[in-house]
Specification:
alpha/beta; seven-stranded mixed beta sheet; two-stranded antiparallel sheet; 7 helices; 22% strand; elongated; binds S-adenosylmethionine
């Protein structure tokens, strides 16, 4: 079974602890108080705390750490020339969800690098060990690489396929350009870039996500060859999938 870690775990855990800090004393008051009003207030507090806690638990398990939403990664993989790739780099691989998603299309002969800052303050367990373990469970040997998207520790013109899945929106807006220019630098001249992005754009931008992300990619020197919307997570809008060449 995969373990892709728990997203935003510190914020969610704090919300769960706050809920428990309300529910437990309110429950004790409800049991011990003689006053009808105190019992009523305690009941309301318990209900509020339970709703708050249950919402935090639901969000903590969303996306479920064991599950892969295959559709967007399948769409990305089928748009990329993995069959003739000797080297591929996934920028912002995290615990390996995107690597596992791409795995069925990656030939054994292809060296698959997974790069990330591997910061476990946002995703519980985010680290090279989990990326490698999840990759193995999906049948691929991943070479995890600790590094920053805007300063890739990767040779120029060395990667036949470069991917960035659900990572650009996580970067500060000023870092998106440098990260894409680095992707351009490491991509071979005949290589391909695939970007899978949430339909999220900076607050001060009015462009639609399917215009915004391709524009940023073009500004970094790529030629965008296709843009499409793919996948549909529960309650979420479809992803934007952009394919481009250097
Ligand atoms: C939402 S996760 C996406 C993980 C995976 N690619 C996927 O499709 O599920 C975003 C990842 O980007 C990584 N990240 C954030 N800023 C980064 C940076 N400057 N350089 C490299 N990785 C970064 C985070 O550590 C996190 O693992």
């Amino acid at each position: 079974m995969y373990n892709f870690g728990l997203y935003h775990w510190r914020r969610r855990l704090r919300a769960i602890l706050i809920a428990l800090a309300v529910i437990l004393p309110a429950g004790a008051c409800r049991r011990t108080s003689e006053s009808r009003w105190v019992r009523l207030v305690a009941t309301v507090a318990m209900v509020g705390g339970t709703v708050h806690g249950a919402t935090a638990v639901r969000r903590l398990l969303s996306p479920p750490p064991w599950a892969l939403d295959r559709e967007p990664y399948d769409a990305l993989a089928s748009a990329l020339p993995f069959a003739r790739a000797d080297r591929a780099l996934d920028i912002g691989c995290g615990t390996g969800r995107s690597l596992v998603g791409l795995a069925p299309s990656v030939p054994d002969s292809c060296t698959l690098l997974g790069l990330d800052v591997f910061d476990d303050r946002i995703i519980l367990g985010n680290g090279p060990a989990l990326a490698r373990r999840n990759g193995r469970a999906a049948g691929v040997d991943i070479a995890p690489l600790v590094g920053d998207a805007s300063r890739l520790p990767v040779a120029t013109d060395s990667q036949d396929v470069v991917t960035a899945c659900r990572v650009l929106h996580d970067l500060p807006a000023t870092e998106v350009g440098p990260a894409l220019r680095e992707a351009h630098r490491v991509c071979t001249p005949q290589g391909t870039l695939g970007v899978l992005e949430l339909p999220i754009i900076p607050e001060d931008t009015t462009a639609a996500p399917e215009e915004y992300w391709p524009d940023r990619i073009s500004q970094a020197g790529f030629t965008v060859t296709s843009v499409q919307r793919v996948g549909q997570e529960a309650r979420a809008e479809p992803y934007v999938l952009v394919v481009a060449t250097p």
